[in-house]
Structures
1.
Amino acid sequence: MSSERNYLAIATQSKKAANILKTVSNKKRCELLYKIHDALKQNASLIEEANQKDLKESISNNLSSALIKRLDLFKNNKFDIMLQGIEEVIALENPLGKVLMKRQLDENLTLYKKTVPIGSLLVIFESRPEVIANIVSLAIKSGNACILKGGKESINTFKIMAKLINDTLVNNFSEYGIPKESVQLIETRDDVNQLLTMDDYIDLVIPRGSNALVKRIKDMTKIPVLGHADGICSIYLDEHLKASDKFTKIVIDSKTNYPAGCNAVETLLINKKLENWDIFLKTLIDAKVTVHLMADVKKSFLFLNPDLASSQFVADVNEKEDFDKEFLSFDIAVKFVDDVKEAIDHINQHSSKHTDCILTEDEKTAKFFLKSIESSSVYWNCSTRFADGFRYGFGTEVGISTAKIHARGPVGLDGLVTYQYQIIGQGQIAGDYLGSGGEKQFNHKDLDFTEEENDD
Amino acid sequence: MSSERNYLAIATQSKKAANILKTVSNKKRCELLYKIHDALKQNASLIEEANQKDLKESISNNLSSALIKRLDLFKNNKFDIMLQGIEEVIALENPLGKVLMKRQLDENLTLYKKTVPIGSLLVIFESRPEVIANIVSLAIKSGNACILKGGKESINTFKIMAKLINDTLVNNFSEYGIPKESVQLIETRDDVNQLLTMDDYIDLVIPRGSNALVKRIKDMTKIPVLGHADGICSIYLDEHLKASDKFTKIVIDSKTNYPAGCNAVETLLINKKLENWDIFLKTLIDAKVTVHLMADVKKSFLFLNPDLASSQFVADVNEKEDFDKEFLSFDIAVKFVDDVKEAIDHINQHSSKHTDCILTEDEKTAKFFLKSIESSSVYWNCSTRFADGFRYGFGTEVGISTAKIHARGPVGLDGLVTYQYQIIGQGQIAGDYLGSGGEKQFNHKDLDFTEEENDD
């Protein structure tokens, strides 16, 4: 796969497959997914063997234990959860051909707005091998072709699973008519780089992995990217609250429940008028979180708590960097603000549009905050860690998007569909209507579409 | 406005204004729009004076009559239609704060999905001066800040209208709190080029003008672009139809009603099995359309119609170019296809994803075509010329988009909003739930939101 011609073939065949796959009924797409589910299940031992090989190589290559943990497909029921995930996707409502609008433009001239697949997806993920099953089931369920690139650490697991999926497509082609190019595999970073230039054929790129991966991809392509580079989440402590368990728990959970998560909090903004604000910092320190304090915060905090002057968990903030980065660790940057407006300004300027939160007992302030924050998710009185497709009830998650348009926040199946306008007429021409040379008028009568069934 | 610092100021102030504008109620945003409407109306003579100056300069610069016609704001009631357009936008439903989903994640932990503005828009248009009123009313109605760049031919008209709009913002700031930077003006192409690099602040670019303009902008920026470069629309003549008036009229209207329009047809695909197919070509020739024929089409056509062998309206197709370009004139490229599948393949490969149409009396073939075509609009038995926001009943049109995601096809106010997730809790933390260390389970109960009112 080294010549330019082959990349073009991958991209054009993906687009071609997408245009066939989208015409296959939901019933058939789901039946095929069951066959993929069964093929993976029946060949669990083959997959485990490949996975063991990946694990051994990773251990001998001294990869981090966190990475190795992600690689292991057969620990903590991960394999079964993966298979269950396919069934859950199958059980979801058919996302295609759903009528979103139905309008009579004139007698026997009807405009429909319907959901359709996006087309061809390029999905790049890192070490977790179960992602291939998630992505393939989501793609086929939503009628999109996909080109997949997995992490090199899980290459053996990935290859055998990909082969099983592809064999299933080939073996069932005569029955379902779903081309095998609906799921294509690429292996190297160079493959990705070449395909990222093919914006005429590939409609959406979904990188699932490190910030560095997402940033690199966003910088390299004109194709829309569904994902997030950073998760710089903030919590604003308003003056209208008591420094009680209810609120300190939220801050602790947001920071410590899973600090490597993109939805972990990185910045704490404290209203100067809040009473006993230092309790929040002491609770963080008790939880072994290093608080990076602005000079004025530090001065006030140590004045109130002189015994903590030499604590290893009290540090200075680097103002130029710390409000614009993910710590991904037991660290948090802390700043005073005068009021909710200053908090909003800080967040809209520094946040990565992921998830931000206000803690307050005052409804008016909360509603102003909710309305003012640009981020894809914004919360009032709960942990930032809830920003997650499973927690939102979306089933299998495609990713979390910090873009301003199309899919935002945690993205489920909805993020893989778009819409199309269809008009069904009986010979009408524009020249008969006012404004284009004729006398007829449009009536623009919205019709009830709640009873419309999806195309199938 | 030549230093880099000033561009950064324009972009950051626009973003800042957007974040204030979005918190202003619909009622106030509409009241301000009425004041803008009145300011333009009361100063019609000033605007006409400036418009006359632009017209005189354009005439002395030998600009084309088509361009001069577009420039003239006081012909054919254009000025009154423009003012009426502002009122129509005011009358539209509030697009913001609309609940799209409401889900109980757990008791007293509720997820909302709500419409929000996109943020800061960069709108670039060419000669038609009335566009400024359209764009400003749409932007303010939808809570988006906008940076505007008009065509240099209409600079005088544009400047006075922009001044009137800005004065209205300044004079009413104390009452509505809408910052004057909600509408900012830039004047040169260099200004545009600089702002196109500011993807951290500007959320959407809307070019309204020539293909060349849109192509140039798409090539220059990473900011999402709402628009279309080409409108390569096709009509497929299926075998299941009679070559009667009903169908020839559609082809003629699609080609000749307004050939310069992006929704005019450029390609005619004819099923080989269609009887009397040559009638379509003869009707086109009668309408003074030059038919550019593939060799086999030409041979068959002239065999059936030897008298047309020397017609000036019969030409060869340039296969390498003519199916991938907009003629924008009384020209059409013509090709035989074996069946609907070949027509679909041709269209999905060559069309610009604008609007394509099938003519047929066979419902099954029509539905297969509707389901297979990638374009943002796809029609059965009516003119491609219906692809237009006014005809779709969207009120003032933002543009027509050939993108695969976000806004597609004719775009009204909906294209200027996106959504945001909001969670309102009472102290819930992720660590209490299954999967993150606790025992609690989410209930994911969808709640009725049909009675929810928009935020205001």
Note: The radius of gyration of chain A is 26 Å.
2.
Amino acid sequence: MSEVVNKAALAKETAGVLASLSTGQKNEALLVMAEALIREAPAIIAANSEDLERGRLGGTPESMLDRLALDVGRITSIAEGLRQIAELPDPIGDNLETIERPNGLFIEKIRVPLGVIGIIYEARPNVTVDAAGLCLKTGNAVVLRGGSSALSSNRKIIEVLHRALIETAIPSQALQLIEDPNRSSVDEMLKLNGLLDVIIPRGGSALIQNVVLNATVPVIETGAGICHTYLDASADREMALSISLNAKAQRPSVCNSMETLLVHRDFAAEHLLAVAEAFREIPVELRGCPETVARIPWALPVSNEDFATEYNDYILNIKIVGGLDEALQHIAEFSTRHSECIVTADAGNAERFLQEVDAAAVYHNASTRFTDGFEFGFGAEIGISTQKLHARGPMGLPALTSTKYKIHGSGQIRG
Amino acid sequence: MSEVVNKAALAKETAGVLASLSTGQKNEALLVMAEALIREAPAIIAANSEDLERGRLGGTPESMLDRLALDVGRITSIAEGLRQIAELPDPIGDNLETIERPNGLFIEKIRVPLGVIGIIYEARPNVTVDAAGLCLKTGNAVVLRGGSSALSSNRKIIEVLHRALIETAIPSQALQLIEDPNRSSVDEMLKLNGLLDVIIPRGGSALIQNVVLNATVPVIETGAGICHTYLDASADREMALSISLNAKAQRPSVCNSMETLLVHRDFAAEHLLAVAEAFREIPVELRGCPETVARIPWALPVSNEDFATEYNDYILNIKIVGGLDEALQHIAEFSTRHSECIVTADAGNAERFLQEVDAAAVYHNASTRFTDGFEFGFGAEIGISTQKLHARGPMGLPALTSTKYKIHGSGQIRG
């Protein structure tokens, strides 16, 4: 039996026990896990430095090494994340609906765990802990497959968490790490119907597309974000400026940052130069339509390929449009249906935009950067879904659950 | 461009209009569709007789011809189904959650259509109308791919519905029928990410498995039902008898009928013979474990393969077990997680069963045959989901929807 099948089967064996744990038992385990991480920080940092060393020798870029690196501060904040998960309400067992039928059947719709969740991600050891915590809080077993360049860190973290779980009501078997660094172990997970109930990919678009296109297990797609901000004719100049700057430059590397600014021709005539100058100061590279380039001498010409690119970087496309219809059309063509924003003082245009744009989150007069579990008040999230099935937008704990109908009768049969 | 891509693209073009239709507009269209079907019944029956003729010549079994056959009575009842869909509450636009954040962001979670739904099904022309009605009521465009042996019937039905829609607010383009009878048109639909938002297969397990294993578009699996009824030691004899007979024999061809009866050893000692005799009268063929065969001379020996088979027929497996644990173990091994029942007077055992059995619907003292949208009070259903993502159990109108976060701000940016 392969490592993947073996570990997924071990995880599945615990699903019944996990579904029956009390909230108190789960919270206690999360706190014990947090403590263990802090206590064992030196050992985790030592394992992490092996990964960093290997990465440096292999020529891994500095930005990726930074995502991989752990120190006491980062481990403390990862442990703090587990404590925050312990404080969130437990969705398992919630009664979502009660139906009393004329024949006396008493039907309850109850939240239950999904079962066994597979998480496929890159070389970010914090995801190992986050995913373990979120899955355990929702009574799910979890099979983790992290990037191979974080393998030493992940192994040590899982070792620490396993030892911690032994003191708790949660079987340590519920938490599995796939150590096989070959791509074939990912391929195997994708086809593990019957052992995995869902796979959630977390990472760049190549990783996500591989999962979406090859998995036979149901997937929750946490996709890329090509997000737009549309500055309408009536947009307030200061608001337009601050929302645009925030959406692009507060943290360009994340999925809810802006890639393309759409500007109403009238607004552009009066204010585009000022907006562009603010971006130049940061600096953000600008790529514009011909009309934009005519107004902003330092803007490069934009291509359709640029409009279809998630830069995750200090680069911004700008397109001048004739009005709301043209903005809607551009968004329908290029959006990845993540987060989209209109800045306007016109309530009618705002309503049309929020109604007609097909995206997980649609904003009127606020930055797209708010699409985030913490900002919505959900607490920690396992990712932001860009698909329409099951969960859409920031996925809090309920996104990691399913439901079950419990029916009580007194001998009812169907006529 | 292939027929599949072309028609899916035409359907997708209408998604925006469909999402904005009022409930009144959708209901009116459903009533106009119902009327048109009744008015055009003779033409539909004529087209249907072409399919039946081809089927007979090709040696199609009588039971399949019966599913395919339409007459005035059946068309009237199919039209009545559309009128019932018109009477159901419209889930689109429902506000599921309102969140006011400390920074003043006002977040609403709103029900929206899924977009474009692909339905892949067998030679049952009633599904053509049901699926069209349910999708249109939920503001979804739909691409239908029915069994090729019903092609003449489906073509005529869609022609009638298209002509009806022209009198309504719904663009007829929202309703597409794939006419290519080759299997390749199904394969093409399964990979149509970007044009189809979800695929729902309806039919036998071969059809469903093909969709689940080959689709890259998200799927809602409406799976097979290997359903169990467990008669506990304390089960009331009459209740046990009537629930068992109903679960097996009221309509054996459907997914929520019982395939295996698990019987506590003590109950078996006193009552199994009487239960078996009642099944013999119907008659239902019995296949039993060695202990069952010792008690019921006319029972054949059961195999593990039998336990893993959905008969959809007058055949029943019987296994005598030592108690609840053994029953739970057998169900965990062989259940398809559809509908499972315990008959018992012991409240503790009932609660353990409802808690521990992992299935869409778990019953205490009622027949598994109730797992059905109408019986749950949801009205018409597009199928019964046996997966855990998005929808589980009978899928009413909300299962054909997604959600969207609408956010109103006043210039908020992220710090």
Note: Chain B has 16 helices and 16 strands.
